[in-house]
Amino acid sequence: MAGVGGAETPARKTKWALLNIIVMVYALVPVLWILSLSFKSPATLSDGNLIPREWTLENYAAIFRTTEFTRALLNSIGIALIATAIAVVLGTMAAYAIARLDFPGKRLLVGASLLIAMFPQVSLVSPLFEIERTLGLFDTWPGLILPYITFSLPLAIYTLSAFFREIPWELEKAAKMDGATPGQAFAKVIAPLAAPGVFTTAILVFIFCWNDFLFAISLTSTENSRTVPVALQFFTGDSQFEDPTGSISAAAVVITIPIILFVLFFQRRIVSGLTSGAVKG
Predict the structure, then answer these.
(1) Backbone dihedral region for residue 105 (phi beyond 0: left; psi -120 to 50: alpha; all else: beta)
(2) Cβ(226)–Cβ(235) under 8 Å?
(3) Any alpha helices (H) in the chain, and if so which ranges?
(4) Contact 260, 52 (CB under 8 A)
């Protein structure tokens, strides 16, 4: 089978294989270095070896002995889950309306969603800071959940719209002709078919909320709502008198594990969600 832009000759395959290896090594070296530091003892942290000479789990034990990391981890999990649930529910309703209904201002709504998604987040930090301090939302869970919903909702709408457009409209009509109400037709016919898309969207939104640093550093000031990406900046490890590099590396590895598991188990669904609707036919 011919490849894109020409035949798949052995030389061409070798060239692409080498290019893929270079890219993978370039991307994995920082990750492997952080992983190596997390298993090194304080005495060997600066020896420059990728493979630790003295393996230890003390760095992982140290981060869970303090409330600084565990509290931030709970904040990240809670805030990301709540923001994901709200964004997916609202996004599902909006995407269904965009895909199925013809109403005035439909294109304007889609354009406004696109505009919000493309808006530079850093330009909104100062206004959000002042608004949340005035409303008493600064350094609270809702103070982070609301901006996360705002910026993840367009992603949910666009991803889910592609899935809803692929569902045959005749199935919903047939359910209504059999006596189902619009709500029953949606819940029993459309929702199960759209479930893979909803699940994919939830993963993408959760990853966005989990990795955010800009809003988390700007709209929090204490451990009450500080998430893990920000907590790492202030992390001192088990003792403030020790070099926290090993503890910070261990904490970075721990918070990366959920994202790696999501991508490994659901990479096909994530790719299909991002490319759904890109090719028609």
Answers:
(1) left
(2) no
(3) 10-38, 58-63, 67-100, 106-118, 125-135, 141-166, 169-177, 182-185, 191-211, 214-218, 228-231, 245-275
(4) no
Hey, which residues does 55 pair with through a beta bridge? Answer: 40
Per-residue pLDDT tens over the stretch 7-45: 678 888 888 899 999 999 998 898 899 999 999 888 888
Cα-Cα-Cα-Cα dihedral sign, residues 53, 55, 59, 65:
negative
Per the listing, tokens 């020790």 go with: 242
Closest to 35 (Cα-Cα) out of 248, 263, 262: 248
pLDDT tier at 79, thresholds 50, 70, 90 = very high
**How far, CA to CA in Å, does 179 sit from each of 101, 173, 197?**
20, 10, 27
Contact 124, 62 (CB under 8 A): no
Residue 84 confidence (pLDDT) above 80: yes
